[in-house]
Each structure stands twice: as C-alpha cells, then as structure tokens.
Amino acid sequence: MRGPQHENQTxxxxxxxxxVRLVLTVVVASAGTIxxxxxxxxxxxxxxxxxxxxxxxxxxxLHARTGVALVHGVLAFLFAAPLVxxxxxxxxxxxxxxxxxxRPGTRRPQVARWRWVLLGLAGAxxxxxxxxxxGGRRARLLPAELADRIGDVSPxxxxxxxxxxxxTLALLVYSFAYLRWMTWLVRGGPRRRGxxxxxxxxxxxxxxxxxTGAQYR
Length: 217
Fold this sequence. Notes:
about 75% helix; about 0% strand; flat
C-alpha cells in the first residue's frame, strides 16, 4: 500500500510539472507572437505595400500628376475597410464590452466565435498596415526608408502609402475606444450600436483622409 509520504511526493511532482508546463507554454506563446510580428512587419507588410504600389501605378500617377487624390482615397478605404467590417459584425452580433461586472441575473449577449476570429484577423491586418507603413523600429519611418523596404517604389510613392495609412491608425484608436465604452455611450440593441459605429468610423476615416490627402489635390 502506498503511504502518505508517497502521495505527498506524487503531488509535489505533479505541481512541479504543472509549473514547468505553464512556463513552457508562456515561452512558446511569447516566441510565437514575436515571430509572427516580425514576419508581418519585416516580410508581409513590404510585399503587400509593393503589390499595391504596382497595382495602382503610384509612381506613374505621381509623375503624371493625374488621379493621385483618387488613389490616395482608394488606398485609405482599402486599408480601413477590413477593420470596419470586423467590428461591425462583432458589434451587431451582440458584443458588449463593459467596465463593470453585470448585475446578477443578467446575461451578456453571445457572439459567434467566427466573428471574434474575423475581428482578430481584421485587427492584425490593421496593425500590419498602420505600423508596417508608418512606424519604424524607434520612431516614424521616413519615406525613403519605407521605399528601401518595399523596393520598386520611389520615396514620393512611399509617402503616399504612408499618408493613406494614417486614417487606419485613427480608426484603430476609435474602434478600441468604441468597443470599450459603447455600452455607456450608445443606448439600444446591437443593430443600433453597429450603425452608430459605422457612422463614427466613416467620419473618422473621411476626416483624416481629407487632411492627409490635401497635398495631392
């Protein structure tokens, strides 16, 4: 028969192994997150921006001075659209983000998991565009530095891509604030909250796009 001493040793070994697994999980998750961010920032963002620059003939339009403002507006919308769609689907699906614990007897609206997955992908795309285009390792990425990273694009073309990415950064801040405090700011059901978010997002993106694109008119 196994005595109490043997059971204590077994319990200690089990607790030790649980701690080791927890540490390993944290290390692997951290390494995976850092690796994914480096992949997005160093590899995917420049490739994606290069494809857009060639697709919309950014350098050619800047040289000819025709349709530059239109390209800037289209790129700003293209950068911002996935996050708008992701937040809209999540909000209209019933999501509420509260600062306080709900009262007893209340239930938070349930949201389908695929909506959260879509919101996560849209957020990752937005971060790739915003920080991969505007932010450098220490400070703001200069157009010439961005042009070197992308390749096959002039500094002026890289600057246009940067200006088109600023509305996305403003939208990211607005979306986070809205998801954090929308139950305090907007009364009504998920459908109404979704339309209120869409209206605010259109104003934010349109206003910032108008400011950053003024030089191309």
